[in-house]
Amino acid sequence: MAYIAPIHQPSSIRHALKLNFLSPDEECLVVACVPSSSNKRHPSNASSKSNRLEFYLYTPDGLSLQHSRSVYGRVIMLHKIRPASSRTDHLFVGTDRFHYFTLSWNPQTKTLRTEKSYVDQADKSARDSQTGERCHIDALGRFMTLELYEGVVTVVPIAHKTKKQGDAEIGTLGEPIPVRIEELFVRDSTFFQMRSREKEEKPRLALIYEDTQKRVRLKVRQLTYSPGLHGDVGSAALDPPEAEESLQEELEIGASHIIPVAAPSCGVLVLGETGIMYYEHSTNTVIKRPMKEATIFCAWAMIDQQRFVLADEYGKLHMLMLELNEQDQQRVTGWQMDEFGKCSRASVLVYMGIHDEEGILFLGSHSGDSQLISIGTEVKTRQILPNIAPILDFTIMDMGDRSSEGTSNEYSSGQARLVTGSGAFTDGSLRSVRSGVGLEDLGMLAEMENITNIFSISSQPDKVSLDSLVVSLIDETRVFRFTAEGDVEEQDDFCGFSGAATLLAANVSNGRILHVTSTIVRLVDADSGMTTSEWIAPTGQSITATAANEGVVIISIGGSSLIALDTSGDLNVKSQKDFGPNQQIACVNLSPVDQSVCLIGFWQGSTISILNVDSLSILHTEVVSAEAVIVPRSILLLNVLPEQSPTLFIAMADGNVITYSMDIENHALSNKRSTVLGTQQAGFTALPKDDGTYNVFATCDHSSLIYGSEGRLVYSAITAEDAVCVCPFNSQAYPGAIAIATKGHLKLAVVDEERSTHVQGLPVGATVRRIAYSAELKAFGLGTITRHLEQGAEIVKSRFELVDEVVFKVLHTYELNNEELVESVMRCQLDDGYGNLAERFVVGTAYLDDDHTDSVRGRILVFEVTADRQLKVITELAVRGACRCLNMVEGKIVAALIKTVSSLPLHQDQSFVVSVTDNV
Q1: Do both 584 and 733 map to the same domain?
Q2: Beta-carbon contacts of residue 69 (< 8 Å; ≥ 6 apart)
Q3: How many other C-beta atoms are found inside a 10 Å radius of the C-beta of residue 25?
Q4: 3-state SS string for 499-512
Q5: Same domain for 781 and 727
Q6: What distance in Å separates the CA atoms of residue 563 and residue 635, rounded to the nearest whole number?
Q7: By the 8 A CB rule, do 618 and 610 touch?
Q8: pLDDT value for 849
Q9: Do 753 and 792 share a domain, yes or no?
């Protein structure tokens, strides 16, 4: 199973480099990434629009973030240089704002330091490079070349040892020198490696370019440099080598990458779509071989002198192995290439070396998640760095806008989220992006099902710290005890807890433990484990709800009677109250804020009551909902806001949470607020804080953490969607932890102190080009595009898919015609033919064939969703242009075509009539 990295926010990675930057003895990985959102965890990353440089060290658990720094501008190139006086590498960085600089690491202050800066290298008379910017350093480290403009190569000399005195420090960058070349549309370039290390040998630069006749060729140019006199800038030239034959034949039209081959071969590999060519300039040797299957390469990395990893556009990894002549190891005779794995579409590959007898490969991606991959006996993903780019479309899905009463803030619940169509082709996915509180998992305790509740207690009479978890299942109770070192052991017989399901377990006064089941209330001595007192429910009746504090336990018998038992001594009945069959008790709570009152909610009338604990007399009754069928299912009174009145939380059966401010003196309720957390009732758990206030963990289908901030309540989504119940577990081994029970296991976790961005994804395996959300249908409409190879030909298909909003399951798919793509999708309400409005999805399409202007080049389709959640086309209209955009105006569909805007009323017979067409 892949390890999901919690080390940074979702980011798109286009550039990465391995170098000895942080330490002379340890290599680190630097990546240039574009964050998907701002993150409070990194104060230096104030702008989400800027790029970020991140520095990682490799550990047995994966990449560990060591430092992060924002860069003003988008990073377009990275390279490493090593000045003679430095024990570590320096990092050369170029940005799209024409700023170029070198960075070093200060180990004392643990900060980055700018060593050399070129503030502005813009050339207003030149055209920006159409094939991307490139940076190279020759094999001997004497020159750096920058390709920023069409037909211009900027040469930056790197200082090296000479006989002159007063030279610049060896390894530092000199002043840039622009050199013009004839080749304009350069696809890729690289320096040749050198067989001899003599500095008199001039560096040779190989370029793949496209000429004016659309032919692809390989050109070799030799770099000549003359230093300037008296501090002047030197001169440089890139001319064809003298007395050497150049490669005359054309390359295949799909040639895209050129790879230098290390000594002793010292040639270059040219990667094409259908074959690979090897070229050695000194002997003019050319070797061509076709590939088994055509593909498009997008990145490569060198493992050693003979092996290379290649990544293609379709997410496949290939291993290329050079074959050398047995007698003359300097000659390449051929190669072998095999596919060995699948991954995200790579933007950059970096081979990290061998660790634990496995090769480690970092794959940075812009169109999918970046990955750390191990290459051993099998290929496996060791770490995933999430990424939500590129986002082609998105929609807002809000769970907090369905409250019809009280005051409801649409986005206050923390359940509002962006659902994005992210990634491209095989990396395409749906991503749910929301701001919320995260959980850091401490470990899995046990795998078990049917957990109904969990309680944390201290097994010691002095209650120094919590050390035991009582886990209640449907028909039994299990107890786990922790040592101070964090070791855990399940107790076979803990104070007789194992016989039945537990309704409540808590520490009470005099070093005793309170245990409540459906039939009995017991007080157990924590030291000896002996029962000191017990109370048994009347025959034929059961305990349905309970709550307790230090001195009293409140139990509900059969839902109609309420009994208060004294826990300071024996379990004596302090008071009792019968509500009768017309007032059935749904929930009970005793608050730590005011231990003189008891809170109960009723099944009938959507009411709650505040009772005196000693007499069980009613102090106040409140009707919380105008709809009597909506039942309060959980109730809690806590101090959440410092120096303010306590807050009463009421979880209703329909997923609403209603809050009041309560006056301690007269128990009056005020300031009613209503917020939707989900579609199911929430269960409340109080999480105490050091300052005496509390946070509230609400478990439901969209679990949330409720806390106070700046004098108001904040409902924040929390990454515990599968939580069934929780309890605080501030133990000696795990301070500040909570125990979380899910449908399948029990685990310990720590709640983050502040909100951050959280992303969940569903792989689609196709480009999600358009997305629309229907709250009424509880479904998404997706326009997707798939791309794959069949017998060397690329096949592109487009679909419209109906996806469930909760589990993101594809419910139905409608295939579009060949060479037809989804252009726009919207949801709206249209006449169903009977005078009523019905929810519909409208899809606009376009055809790839634009050669025949008189042909129909698009369609508009209207879909209904049937009762069994299937797509059905109720009407369609052919249009003479791609339908770029759709919207509703006064009940009519408005379509933006290539050159016109059309208003399309839908008649009762479900047919279109074009009423208005305007040229724009």
Answers
A1: yes
A2: 44, 52, 53, 112
A3: 8
A4: HCCCCEEEEECCCE
A5: no
A6: 18
A7: yes
A8: 67
A9: no
Q: Is 637:647 a contact under the CB 8 Å cutoff?
A: yes
Name all contacts of 309-313 with Cβ < 8 Å and 24+ positions apart.
Answer: 309/349, 309/351, 309/361, 309/375, 310/271, 310/337, 311/343, 311/345, 311/346, 311/349, 311/363, 313/345, 313/425
Two tokens at 721?
């969607």
The residues that bridge with 146 in the sheet, in sequence order, are: 135, 154
Q: CB of 503 within 8 A of CB of 515?
A: no
Residue indicated by tokens 């039945």: 500
Percent of the chain scored above 70 by pLDDT?
90
Average pLDDT, stretch 256-274? 91
Closest C-alpha among 71, 76, 26, 38 to residue 53: 71
**710 and 813 in a common domain:** no
With H, G, I as helix, E, B as strand and everything else as coil, classify residue 25: coil
807-815, Cβ contacts within 8 angstroms, sequence gap of 24 or more: 808/430, 808/762, 808/780, 811/779, 811/869, 811/870, 812/869, 812/870, 812/871, 813/871, 814/863, 814/871, 814/873
Question: What total of structural domains would you count in the chain?
Answer: 2
**Cis status of the peptide bond prior to 264, with omega within 30 of 0:** yes
CA dist list (Å): 261 to 201, 337, 506, 523, 789: 18, 16, 71, 79, 29
Least Cα distance to 613 among 660, 577, 637 occurs for: 577
Q: If you average pLDDT over every residue of the chain, what do you get? A: 85
The model's pLDDT over 219-231, given as tens digits with 9 standing for 90+, comes to: 999 999 998 777 6
Pair (723, 579) in one structural domain? yes
Q: Are strands 90-95 and 75-81 parallel, antiparallel or unpaired?
A: antiparallel
pLDDT at 855 over 90: no
Q: Which two tokens stand for residue 657?
A: 């949470």
pLDDT tens-digit map of 670-719? 999 888 887 788 899 999 988 889 999 999 877 888 988 888 888 888 87
Of 725, 760, 795, the residue at which a domain comes to its end is 760
Q: How many CB atoms lie within 10 A of CB 829?
A: 14
Residue 576 lies in a domain: yes
Q: Does residue 640 share a domain with residue 729?
A: yes
Do 523 and 506 have their domain in common? yes
Based on its alpha-carbon atoms, the radius of gyration of the chain, rounded to whole angstroms, reads 35
CB count, 10 Å around CB of 521? 24
Q: Which domain holds residue 882?
A: 762-919
**Of 726, 760, 794, which one is at a domain's C-terminal end?**
760
Residue 32 vs residues 93, 246, 887: alpha-carbon distances, Å: 9, 37, 39
pLDDT confidence band for 322 (50 / 70 / 90): very high
CB within 8 A of 904, min separation 6: which ones?
Answer: 860, 877, 892, 893, 894, 895, 912, 913, 914, 915
Q: Which residue has the tokens 């307790």?
A: 548
pLDDT value, residue 727? 93
Give the sheet arrangement for strand 134-137, strand by strand.
Answer: 134-137, 143-149, 152-157, 177-180
- Overall average pLDDT of the 774-787 stretch: 92
- Separation of alpha carbons 902 and 912, rounded Å: 11
Which of 303, 306, 299, 254 minimizes the C-alpha distance to 276? 254
Q: For residue 896, is it within any domain?
A: yes
Q: Is position 834 within any domain?
A: yes
- The beta strand positions in 47-196, using DSSP E, are 51-59, 62-71, 75-81, 90-95, 100-106, 111-118, 134-137, 143-149, 152-157, 177-180, 185-191
Identify the CATH number of the domain in which residue 629 sits.
Answer: 2.130.10.10
pLDDT reading at 454 higher than 60 = yes
pLDDT digits (tens, 9 = 90+) for 281-317: 878 889 999 999 899 999 999 999 899 999 999 999 9
Angstrom CA distances, 617 to 456, 556, 563, 577, 668, stand at: 31, 15, 12, 8, 16
In the prediction, which pLDDT does 198 show? Answer: 59
pLDDT of residue 919: 47
Give residue 187's pLDDT: 95
616 and 738 fall within a common domain? yes
Backbone angles phi, psi at 499, to 5 degrees: -75, -35
pLDDT score recorded for residue 373: 94
